[in-house]
């Protein structure tokens, strides 16, 4: 029963964390001169415009039941932006792509600092779940596979001679991502473990 409560709390945490993630993308694009997110109504803390019925509501609960809580993930509706409207044409997309994970890491390390200041309790334990959820969102989204944020960063730094590779990765990114989730997701755990310990001073979940 206790584990079920913790997992349900994790679902309730990862949903607003995913919304924060998408808001940060929109904020970064807006600051770089692209009005698209603002025109789409996405520069708001109101969660409703950010909710994707599948990724925000159904997917986390479906994964909860299908995997018995061993893997839970959620995402909000992607924020639209126009790379050509960004002031920094070469690296603007990389900044917008990195903004979402950066927001999650800022929240994780802010709460991690609070955990370090407080005595261990049920409250700090649930705070650590929030830290873990945000580290998961940040690290996973930095994987350079479309449609994850990492591909915007990768594309910004790849020379023009890799154009064909970009097109290929964009075309088959979804299938590559499925393979990654099935066979290679665990390779992210050492990074998440290190960030979690760095933020909270505690061992990983």
Number of helices: 8
Radius of gyration (CA) equals 17 Å
- Topology as a string of helices (H) and strands (E): HHHHHHHH
State the total count of DSSP E strands. Answer: 0
Number of domains: 1
Describe what you observe in this structure.
This protein is mainly α and 205 residues long. It is 66% helix and 0% strand. The chain has one domain. The protein is globular. The two termini are 18 Å apart.
Write a compact overview of the structure shown.
The protein is mainly α and 205 residues long. It has helices at residues 2-31, 36-39, 53-66, 92-117, 122-141, 150-157, 163-183, 189-200.
Please describe the topology of this protein.
Layout: H1 2-31, H2 36-39, H3 53-66, H4 92-117, H5 122-141, H6 150-157, H7 163-183, H8 189-200
Helix pairs in contact: 1-3, 1-4, 1-5, 4-5, 4-6, 4-8, 5-8
Name its key features:
205 residues, mainly alpha, 8 helices, 66% helix
């Amino acid at each position: 029963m206790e584990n079920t409560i913790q997992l349900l709390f994790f679902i309730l945490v990862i949903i607003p964390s995913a919304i924060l993630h998408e808001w940060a993308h929109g904020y970064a694009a807006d600051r770089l001169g692209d009005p698209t997110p603002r025109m789409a109504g996405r520069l708001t803390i109101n969660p409703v415009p950010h909710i994707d019925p599948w990724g925000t509501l159904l997917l986390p609960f479906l994964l909860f039941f299908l995997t018995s809580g061993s893997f839970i993930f959620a995402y909000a509706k992607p924020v639209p932006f126009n790379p050509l409207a960004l002031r920094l044409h070469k690296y603007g997309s990389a900044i917008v792509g990195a903004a979402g994970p950066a927001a999650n890491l800022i929240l994780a390390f802010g709460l991690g600092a609070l955990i370090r200041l407080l005595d261990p309790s049920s409250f700090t334990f649930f705070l650590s779940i929030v830290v873990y959820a945000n580290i998961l969102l940040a690290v996973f989204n930095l994987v350079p596979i479309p449609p994850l944020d990492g591909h915007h960063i990768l594309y910004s730094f790849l020379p023009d001679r890799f154009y064909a590779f970009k097109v290929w990765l964009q075309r088959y990114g979804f299938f590559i991502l499925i393979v990654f989730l099935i066979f290679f997701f665990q390779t992210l755990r050492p990074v998440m473990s290190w960030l979690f310990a760095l933020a909270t001073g505690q061992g990983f979940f």
